[in-house]
């Protein structure tokens, strides 16, 4: 296994989640028209060390060799308090309670000087997986005190933020930012994926809003923009122009990462009930 392809365990997990997601995606709304604006980013561009430094990767020592590298990447996530890393429930729900997880905020997971933080524990919403309408797909990984002193945590949204915006036509043509460590996918022909362990950012336009879900349009042929894919699960969604506020996290999308991103909203009563046990809510 090397940095040119995703770890088999990661890909298998992501495919399983996408199969579940496809059941609900069949009735997804049609993509919106391309936004009337320049196409600044196609697929993803590296963030570098200084941008989105509060977005990190979740890792697990798959081969149990005691060395954590990009080959151990599992999902993405973000820091929402000095000791709280937010990710998706489906990224951690299959681990035993005593599993040792790691988090890295490095911009390149294959950096020879990769810095990782050993988590102290993790928790996922106990309602996860019982209702595909509201998947409860949210989890936190707790980190040692003092381990993130140089990183500014991101803010969570106030209750009902996206509903309020939608009610005033504030989501139409809105561009969102996707930030994570996931694979790149081919846009045509037989699907092919490459993984380099680099944190990247891309843009996707708004598609639709449901009670628990934010849908984004990842049809690059129509929009000229980008999206997310395997390994981006748990990663944050930002409004373009406001990179301090997370509004949703990646759950699933279409099976080949060419059409839609289905993201779990963080402004709902369900998400807030779980997250409020670990952080102060706005």
Any idea what the CATH architecture is? Answer: Beta Barrel
Whole-number radius of gyration? Answer: 17 Å
Specify the structural class: alpha+beta
The CATH class turns out to be: Mainly Beta
The end-to-end span amounts to 43 Å
User: What's the name of the CATH homologous superfamily?
Assistant: Trypsin-like serine proteases
Give the overall average pLDDT. Answer: 86
Helix and strand sequence? HEEEEEEEEHEEEEEHEEEH
Poorly predicted regions are 1-42
Q: Strand share of the residues?
A: 25-35%
The third-level CATH topology is: Thrombin, subunit H
What is the count of β-strands?
A: 16
Task: Work out the count of structural domains.
Answer: 1
- Report helical residue fraction: 10-25%
Q: Strand count, sense and closure of the main sheet?
A: 7 strands, antiparallel
Bulk shape: globular
Sheet with the most strands: spatial strand order: 6-5-2-3-4-8-7
Number of helices: 4
């Amino acid at each position: 296994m090397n940095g040119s392809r995703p770890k088999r365990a990661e890909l298998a997990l992501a495919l399983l989640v996408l199969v579940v997601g496809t059941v609900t995606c069949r009735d997804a709304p049609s993509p919106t028209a391309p936004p009337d604006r320049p196409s600044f980013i196609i697929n993803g561009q590296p963030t570098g060390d200084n941008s989105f430094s509060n977005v990190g990767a979740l890792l697990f020592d798959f081969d149990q060799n005691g060395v954590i590298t990009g080959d151990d990447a599992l999902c993405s996530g973000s820091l929402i308090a000095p000791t709280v890393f937010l990710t998706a429930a489906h990224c951690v729900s299959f681990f035993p309670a005593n599993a040792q997880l790691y988090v890295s905020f490095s911009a390149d997971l294959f950096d020879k000087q990769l810095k990782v933080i050993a988590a102290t524990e993790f928790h996922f919403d106990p309602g996860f997986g019982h209702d595909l309408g509201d998947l409860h797909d949210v989890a936190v990984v707790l980190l040692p005190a003092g381990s993130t002193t140089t990183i500014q945590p991101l803010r969570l949204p106030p209750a009902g933020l996206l509903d309020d915006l939608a009610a005033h036509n504030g989501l139409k043509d809105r561009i969102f930012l996707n930030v994570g460590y996931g694979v790149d996918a081919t846009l045509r022909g037989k699907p092919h994926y490459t993984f380099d362990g680099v944190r990247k950012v891309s843009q996707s336009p708004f598609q639709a809003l449901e009670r628990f879900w934010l849908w984004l349009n990842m049809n690059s042929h129509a929009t000229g923009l980008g999206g997310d894919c395997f390994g981006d699960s748990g990663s944050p969604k930002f409004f373009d122009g406001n990179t301090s506020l997370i509004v949703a996290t990646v759950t699933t999308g279409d099976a080949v990462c060419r059409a839609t991103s289905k993201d779990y909203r963080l402004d709902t009563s369900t998400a807030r009930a779980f997250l409020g046990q670990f952080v102060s809510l706005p």
